[in-house]
Amino acid sequence: MARVAGPDSARLDLFLAGGFGSGAAVLIADSLRVTGGSVARRFIPPPPLLWAALGRLAVPSATDTTARVDGELLRVDIGKPTNWRLTFRRDSLVRVERIRGGRIIEWVERNGANVRYRSEEARRALSLTVKRVLEVPPFDASIWAPF
């Protein structure tokens, strides 16, 4: 379950397949705290990619940005050399890639209700499925401090 309080606070409660573990990730701006020990922590993307999984762009600033239109897609490279590659479809963020040494080292892709994160270096992945989106009253402040 994800709870987002825009513009800069999010909490994800995670339940690993088969009941082998659980954890929570609290993201406030670019600060990430994770409960659930090392099992949960190793599957959580770093803050910029976790924000991308939730549909918000929050990559660090860098010099040089280039953009090109490819049909209905807008592709953006940030940094020189490129550190981040972004893909938008109309007004939606669909893919964020982190690049080092000219290689994609991790990425998030949003495709409708399905969100995938993959770290190519660590060979780990996380898949999220959006079941429903609800607008609710403000959350109790205690959800931001699960530790």
Describe this structure in words.
A hairpin with a 3-residue loop joins strand 1 and strand 2. The protein has one domain. The protein is globular, with a radius of gyration of 16 Å. It is mainly β and 147 residues long. The chain has 2 helices and 11 strands. The mean pLDDT is 88. It has helices at residues 37-41, 47-53; strands at residues 2-5, 9-15, 22-28, 31-34, 65-70, 73-78, 84-89, 92-100, 103-111, 114-119, 124-129. The strands form 2 sheets. Strands 5-6-7-8-9-10-11 form a 7-stranded antiparallel β-sheet, covered by helices on one side. The chain has a 4-stranded antiparallel β-sheet with strand order 1-2-3-4.
Secondary-structure element sequence?
EEEEHHEEEEEEE
Helix/strand structural class:
mainly beta
What is the residue-averaged pLDDT? 88
Range of helix content: under 10%
